[in-house]
Amino acid sequence: MQAVVVHGAGDLRVEDVPDPTCPPDAVLVRMEWGGVCGSDLSYWKNGASGTAILRDPLVLGHEVAGRVAEIGAAVDPAALGDIEVGTPVTVHPATLVGDEGLPEDLADRTNLWPQVRYFGSAAFQPHEAGGFSELRAVRPDQLRRLPDGVSTREAALAEPLGVAIHALHRAGDITGRSLLVNGCGPIGLLAVAAARAMGARHITAADLSPAALDLATALGADAVVDISAGDALPADVEIAVEASGAPRALGGVIAAVRRGGVLVQVGNLPAGEVSAALGNIVTREIDYRGSYRFVDEISEALTMLAGPVDFTPVITHTFDLAQAQEAFEVAADRSTGSSKVLLRLS
User: Which segments cross the bilayer (predicted)?
Assistant: First the structure.
Protein backbone atom coordinates (compact mmCIF):
# COMPACT_ATOMS: atom_id res chain seq x y z
CA MET A 1 0.00 0.00 0.00
CA GLN A 2 1.00 3.64 -0.24
CA ALA A 3 1.55 5.98 2.70
CA VAL A 4 2.74 9.51 3.43
CA VAL A 5 6.06 9.14 5.26
CA VAL A 6 8.29 11.87 6.67
CA HIS A 7 11.98 10.93 6.80
CA GLY A 8 13.38 14.18 8.16
CA ALA A 9 13.10 17.94 7.90
CA GLY A 10 12.06 18.79 4.34
CA ASP A 11 11.87 15.12 3.35
CA LEU A 12 8.29 14.00 2.74
CA ARG A 13 7.63 10.98 0.55
CA VAL A 14 4.70 9.01 -0.78
CA GLU A 15 6.04 5.49 -0.79
CA ASP A 16 5.09 1.84 -0.81
CA VAL A 17 5.00 0.22 2.61
CA PRO A 18 3.90 -3.31 3.52
CA ASP A 19 0.17 -3.90 3.86
CA PRO A 20 -0.67 -4.38 7.54
CA THR A 21 -2.11 -7.66 8.71
CA CYS A 22 -5.13 -7.56 10.97
CA PRO A 23 -4.17 -8.74 14.49
CA PRO A 24 -6.74 -11.04 16.09
CA ASP A 25 -7.74 -8.39 18.66
CA ALA A 26 -7.81 -5.43 16.23
CA VAL A 27 -9.79 -3.99 13.34
CA LEU A 28 -8.38 -3.05 9.94
CA VAL A 29 -9.67 0.24 8.53
CA ARG A 30 -9.39 1.25 4.89
CA MET A 31 -8.69 4.96 5.15
CA GLU A 32 -10.55 7.30 2.81
CA TRP A 33 -9.79 10.85 3.98
CA GLY A 34 -7.19 12.57 6.14
CA GLY A 35 -6.71 16.16 7.25
CA VAL A 36 -3.31 17.83 7.33
CA CYS A 37 -2.60 19.23 10.81
CA GLY A 38 -0.05 21.71 12.08
CA SER A 39 1.90 18.93 13.77
CA ASP A 40 2.17 17.07 10.43
CA LEU A 41 3.54 20.26 8.89
CA SER A 42 6.00 20.69 11.75
CA TYR A 43 7.44 17.19 11.34
CA TRP A 44 7.85 17.91 7.62
CA LYS A 45 9.37 21.38 8.01
CA ASN A 46 11.38 20.93 11.22
CA GLY A 47 11.82 17.21 11.83
CA ALA A 48 10.04 17.71 15.15
CA SER A 49 6.73 18.76 16.66
CA GLY A 50 7.16 20.48 20.00
CA THR A 51 9.39 18.23 22.10
CA ALA A 52 8.78 15.16 19.90
CA ILE A 53 11.88 14.65 17.75
CA LEU A 54 11.74 12.57 14.57
CA ARG A 55 14.30 9.77 14.78
CA ASP A 56 12.92 7.28 12.25
CA PRO A 57 10.65 7.49 9.21
CA LEU A 58 7.08 8.14 10.33
CA VAL A 59 3.69 7.70 8.66
CA LEU A 60 1.90 10.96 9.42
CA GLY A 61 -1.76 11.76 10.02
CA HIS A 62 -4.20 11.66 12.92
CA GLU A 63 -7.31 13.30 11.42
CA VAL A 64 -8.67 10.34 9.47
CA ALA A 65 -11.83 8.50 8.50
CA GLY A 66 -12.61 5.44 6.42
CA ARG A 67 -14.45 2.12 6.47
CA VAL A 68 -13.91 -1.12 8.35
CA ALA A 69 -12.14 -3.58 6.05
CA GLU A 70 -11.54 -6.55 8.37
CA ILE A 71 -12.32 -7.56 11.96
CA GLY A 72 -9.87 -9.69 13.92
CA ALA A 73 -11.05 -13.18 14.89
CA ALA A 74 -10.63 -12.51 18.63
CA VAL A 75 -12.54 -9.21 18.73
CA ASP A 76 -15.54 -9.40 21.07
CA PRO A 77 -18.66 -8.45 19.05
CA ALA A 78 -19.93 -6.58 22.10
CA ALA A 79 -16.95 -4.24 21.79
CA LEU A 80 -18.05 -3.31 18.27
CA GLY A 81 -21.77 -2.76 18.77
CA ASP A 82 -23.26 -2.20 15.33
CA ILE A 83 -19.87 -1.79 13.63
CA GLU A 84 -19.21 -4.37 10.95
CA VAL A 85 -17.18 -4.70 7.76
CA GLY A 86 -18.04 -1.73 5.56
CA THR A 87 -19.15 0.55 8.41
CA PRO A 88 -17.89 4.14 8.04
CA VAL A 89 -15.79 5.20 11.03
CA THR A 90 -13.35 7.70 12.37
CA VAL A 91 -10.63 6.88 14.87
CA HIS A 92 -9.75 8.27 18.30
CA PRO A 93 -5.97 8.58 17.83
CA ALA A 94 -4.85 8.26 21.48
CA THR A 95 -3.47 5.26 23.36
CA LEU A 96 -2.79 5.62 27.10
CA VAL A 97 0.57 4.17 28.10
CA GLY A 98 1.56 2.69 31.45
CA ASP A 99 -0.18 2.30 34.80
CA GLU A 100 0.86 5.56 36.43
CA GLY A 101 -2.62 6.96 36.00
CA LEU A 102 -4.02 10.25 37.26
CA PRO A 103 -5.02 11.63 40.67
CA GLU A 104 -8.60 10.83 41.59
CA ASP A 105 -9.79 14.37 40.95
CA LEU A 106 -8.43 14.21 37.38
CA ALA A 107 -9.49 10.66 36.59
CA ASP A 108 -11.92 11.71 33.86
CA ARG A 109 -9.40 13.97 32.12
CA THR A 110 -7.57 11.23 30.25
CA ASN A 111 -6.06 13.74 27.83
CA LEU A 112 -3.76 14.61 30.77
CA TRP A 113 -2.52 11.01 31.17
CA PRO A 114 1.25 11.14 31.83
CA GLN A 115 2.17 9.26 28.64
CA VAL A 116 0.00 9.02 25.53
CA ARG A 117 0.79 7.50 22.17
CA TYR A 118 -0.92 9.40 19.37
CA PHE A 119 -1.36 8.62 15.69
CA GLY A 120 1.48 10.12 13.65
CA SER A 121 3.60 11.10 16.65
CA ALA A 122 7.34 10.77 17.27
CA ALA A 123 6.99 11.25 21.03
CA PHE A 124 7.87 7.59 21.67
CA GLN A 125 10.43 5.20 20.29
CA PRO A 126 9.37 3.36 18.22
CA HIS A 127 7.17 6.10 16.79
CA GLU A 128 3.39 5.70 16.52
CA ALA A 129 2.44 5.39 12.86
CA GLY A 130 -0.38 7.65 11.73
CA GLY A 131 -3.28 7.11 9.37
CA PHE A 132 -2.09 8.70 6.10
CA SER A 133 -2.04 5.27 4.49
CA GLU A 134 -4.47 3.10 2.62
CA LEU A 135 -4.91 0.72 5.59
CA ARG A 136 -4.38 0.99 9.34
CA ALA A 137 -5.02 -1.54 12.14
CA VAL A 138 -6.63 -0.04 15.26
CA ARG A 139 -8.10 -1.23 18.55
CA PRO A 140 -11.88 -1.68 18.58
CA ASP A 141 -12.27 0.93 21.34
CA GLN A 142 -10.69 3.56 19.07
CA LEU A 143 -13.47 3.29 16.48
CA ARG A 144 -16.28 5.82 16.32
CA ARG A 145 -19.17 4.98 13.99
CA LEU A 146 -20.27 7.84 11.77
CA PRO A 147 -23.84 9.09 12.22
CA ASP A 148 -26.19 8.79 9.29
CA GLY A 149 -25.65 11.63 6.86
CA VAL A 150 -22.00 12.27 7.82
CA SER A 151 -19.58 11.29 5.06
CA THR A 152 -16.04 10.05 5.64
CA ARG A 153 -14.84 13.31 4.05
CA GLU A 154 -16.70 15.34 6.68
CA ALA A 155 -15.61 12.95 9.42
CA ALA A 156 -11.97 13.83 8.75
CA LEU A 157 -12.90 17.01 10.64
CA ALA A 158 -13.99 15.11 13.76
CA GLU A 159 -10.58 15.06 15.45
CA PRO A 160 -9.78 18.78 15.09
CA LEU A 161 -13.40 19.63 15.86
CA GLY A 162 -13.00 17.59 19.05
CA VAL A 163 -10.03 19.82 19.94
CA ALA A 164 -12.15 22.93 19.38
CA ILE A 165 -15.08 21.57 21.40
CA HIS A 166 -12.77 20.65 24.28
CA ALA A 167 -11.45 24.22 24.32
CA LEU A 168 -15.00 25.54 24.56
CA HIS A 169 -15.79 23.07 27.35
CA ARG A 170 -12.78 24.41 29.23
CA ALA A 171 -14.50 27.81 29.21
CA GLY A 172 -17.63 26.44 30.89
CA ASP A 173 -21.18 26.85 29.64
CA ILE A 174 -21.03 29.22 26.66
CA THR A 175 -24.78 29.31 26.03
CA GLY A 176 -25.94 32.91 25.63
CA ARG A 177 -22.45 34.33 26.17
CA SER A 178 -20.22 36.59 24.09
CA LEU A 179 -17.11 34.99 22.63
CA LEU A 180 -13.90 36.12 20.93
CA VAL A 181 -11.91 33.64 18.86
CA ASN A 182 -8.43 34.98 18.14
CA GLY A 183 -6.70 33.16 15.30
CA CYS A 184 -8.73 31.68 12.44
CA GLY A 185 -6.67 28.73 11.39
CA PRO A 186 -8.59 25.44 11.23
CA ILE A 187 -8.97 25.06 15.02
CA GLY A 188 -10.09 28.66 15.47
CA LEU A 189 -12.58 28.35 12.61
CA LEU A 190 -13.96 25.10 14.01
CA ALA A 191 -14.27 26.81 17.41
CA VAL A 192 -16.37 29.52 15.75
CA ALA A 193 -18.70 26.95 14.18
CA ALA A 194 -18.86 24.83 17.35
CA ALA A 195 -19.66 27.90 19.44
CA ARG A 196 -22.50 28.68 17.06
CA ALA A 197 -23.80 25.12 17.46
CA MET A 198 -23.45 25.36 21.26
CA GLY A 199 -25.55 28.50 21.54
CA ALA A 200 -23.10 31.37 21.98
CA ARG A 201 -24.90 34.72 21.86
CA HIS A 202 -22.33 36.70 19.88
CA ILE A 203 -19.11 35.47 18.25
CA THR A 204 -16.27 37.73 17.11
CA ALA A 205 -13.42 36.25 15.08
CA ALA A 206 -10.03 37.97 14.73
CA ASP A 207 -7.17 37.22 12.37
CA LEU A 208 -4.54 38.79 10.13
CA SER A 209 -5.98 37.17 6.98
CA PRO A 210 -9.08 38.57 5.26
CA ALA A 211 -9.59 35.17 3.58
CA ALA A 212 -9.65 33.43 6.97
CA LEU A 213 -12.14 36.02 8.24
CA ASP A 214 -14.40 35.34 5.25
CA LEU A 215 -14.38 31.67 6.29
CA ALA A 216 -15.16 32.67 9.88
CA THR A 217 -18.23 34.54 8.65
CA ALA A 218 -19.31 31.52 6.61
CA LEU A 219 -18.93 29.37 9.73
CA GLY A 220 -21.08 31.57 11.94
CA ALA A 221 -19.11 34.55 13.23
CA ASP A 222 -21.30 37.59 13.93
CA ALA A 223 -18.39 40.04 13.56
CA VAL A 224 -14.78 39.90 12.38
CA VAL A 225 -11.69 41.90 13.25
CA ASP A 226 -8.96 42.30 10.63
CA ILE A 227 -5.81 42.71 12.72
CA SER A 228 -3.75 43.44 9.59
CA ALA A 229 -5.89 46.52 8.93
CA GLY A 230 -5.43 47.81 12.46
CA ASP A 231 -8.97 46.98 13.56
CA ALA A 232 -9.42 46.84 17.33
CA LEU A 233 -10.52 43.81 19.28
CA PRO A 234 -13.90 44.10 21.02
CA ALA A 235 -14.15 45.07 24.66
CA ASP A 236 -15.60 43.13 27.57
CA VAL A 237 -16.19 39.76 25.94
CA GLU A 238 -17.14 37.09 28.43
CA ILE A 239 -14.98 34.35 26.93
CA ALA A 240 -11.94 34.39 24.64
CA VAL A 241 -10.43 31.43 22.83
CA GLU A 242 -6.82 32.14 21.84
CA ALA A 243 -6.13 29.90 18.84
CA SER A 244 -3.21 31.67 17.17
CA GLY A 245 -0.45 30.57 19.53
CA ALA A 246 1.23 33.96 19.01
CA PRO A 247 2.63 35.34 22.30
CA ARG A 248 2.38 38.92 21.02
CA ALA A 249 -1.38 38.48 20.70
CA LEU A 250 -1.90 37.60 24.35
CA GLY A 251 -1.86 41.09 25.81
CA GLY A 252 -4.55 42.38 23.48
CA VAL A 253 -6.72 39.31 23.91
CA ILE A 254 -6.49 39.50 27.70
CA ALA A 255 -7.45 43.17 27.56
CA ALA A 256 -10.52 42.28 25.46
CA VAL A 257 -11.88 39.96 28.16
CA ARG A 258 -14.20 41.49 30.71
CA ARG A 259 -13.29 41.56 34.38
CA GLY A 260 -13.78 38.10 35.82
CA GLY A 261 -13.93 36.55 32.34
CA VAL A 262 -12.27 33.43 30.94
CA LEU A 263 -9.44 33.04 28.42
CA VAL A 264 -8.77 29.56 26.99
CA GLN A 265 -5.39 28.95 25.36
CA VAL A 266 -5.74 26.29 22.66
CA GLY A 267 -3.17 27.65 20.19
CA ASN A 268 0.19 25.98 20.79
CA LEU A 269 2.64 28.47 22.29
CA PRO A 270 6.38 28.15 21.55
CA ALA A 271 8.17 25.59 23.71
CA GLY A 272 10.72 28.05 25.07
CA GLU A 273 10.39 31.29 26.97
CA VAL A 274 8.04 33.88 25.49
CA SER A 275 7.41 37.55 26.09
CA ALA A 276 3.79 38.58 26.59
CA ALA A 277 1.82 41.30 28.35
CA LEU A 278 0.01 39.40 31.11
CA GLY A 279 -0.62 42.05 33.74
CA ASN A 280 -4.36 42.27 33.10
CA ILE A 281 -4.76 38.65 34.20
CA VAL A 282 -4.20 39.93 37.73
CA THR A 283 -5.96 43.28 37.70
CA ARG A 284 -8.98 41.99 35.77
CA GLU A 285 -9.02 38.58 37.51
CA ILE A 286 -9.04 36.72 34.23
CA ASP A 287 -9.17 32.92 34.43
CA TYR A 288 -6.43 31.77 32.01
CA ARG A 289 -6.94 28.11 31.15
CA GLY A 290 -5.01 25.73 28.96
CA SER A 291 -6.67 23.29 26.57
CA TYR A 292 -4.91 20.16 25.29
CA ARG A 293 -6.32 17.78 22.68
CA PHE A 294 -9.57 16.27 24.01
CA VAL A 295 -11.00 13.48 26.13
CA ASP A 296 -13.80 11.98 24.03
CA GLU A 297 -15.13 15.13 22.38
CA ILE A 298 -14.46 13.42 19.05
CA SER A 299 -17.76 11.61 19.67
CA GLU A 300 -19.52 14.91 20.37
CA ALA A 301 -17.93 16.26 17.19
CA LEU A 302 -19.58 13.54 15.11
CA THR A 303 -22.97 14.41 16.58
CA MET A 304 -22.33 18.07 15.82
CA LEU A 305 -21.30 17.28 12.25
CA ALA A 306 -24.69 15.62 11.79
CA GLY A 307 -26.48 18.73 13.08
CA PRO A 308 -27.68 21.93 11.41
CA VAL A 309 -24.38 23.87 11.41
CA ASP A 310 -22.34 23.38 8.22
CA PHE A 311 -18.67 22.83 9.07
CA THR A 312 -17.50 22.08 5.53
CA PRO A 313 -16.46 25.67 4.58
CA VAL A 314 -13.31 25.04 6.63
CA ILE A 315 -12.27 22.48 3.95
CA THR A 316 -10.59 24.60 1.29
CA HIS A 317 -8.43 22.14 -0.67
CA THR A 318 -8.37 18.41 -1.43
CA PHE A 319 -5.54 16.38 -2.95
CA ASP A 320 -4.96 12.76 -3.85
CA LEU A 321 -2.54 10.74 -1.75
CA ALA A 322 0.06 10.92 -4.52
CA GLN A 323 -0.06 14.74 -4.28
CA ALA A 324 0.86 14.85 -0.58
CA GLN A 325 3.87 17.11 -1.15
CA GLU A 326 1.70 19.72 -2.89
CA ALA A 327 -0.98 19.34 -0.21
CA PHE A 328 1.53 20.08 2.55
CA GLU A 329 2.93 23.07 0.68
CA VAL A 330 -0.55 24.55 0.26
CA ALA A 331 -1.49 23.85 3.89
CA ALA A 332 1.68 25.59 5.09
CA ASP A 333 1.14 28.70 2.95
CA ARG A 334 -1.75 30.87 4.16
CA SER A 335 -1.39 33.08 1.11
CA THR A 336 -3.05 30.27 -0.84
CA GLY A 337 -6.23 30.84 1.15
CA SER A 338 -5.91 27.37 2.63
CA SER A 339 -7.52 26.28 5.84
CA LYS A 340 -8.16 22.57 6.31
CA VAL A 341 -6.45 20.63 3.52
CA LEU A 342 -7.62 17.06 2.99
CA LEU A 343 -5.89 14.05 1.44
CA ARG A 344 -7.98 11.46 -0.43
CA LEU A 345 -6.31 8.33 0.93
CA SER A 346 -8.02 5.66 -1.16
Answer: none
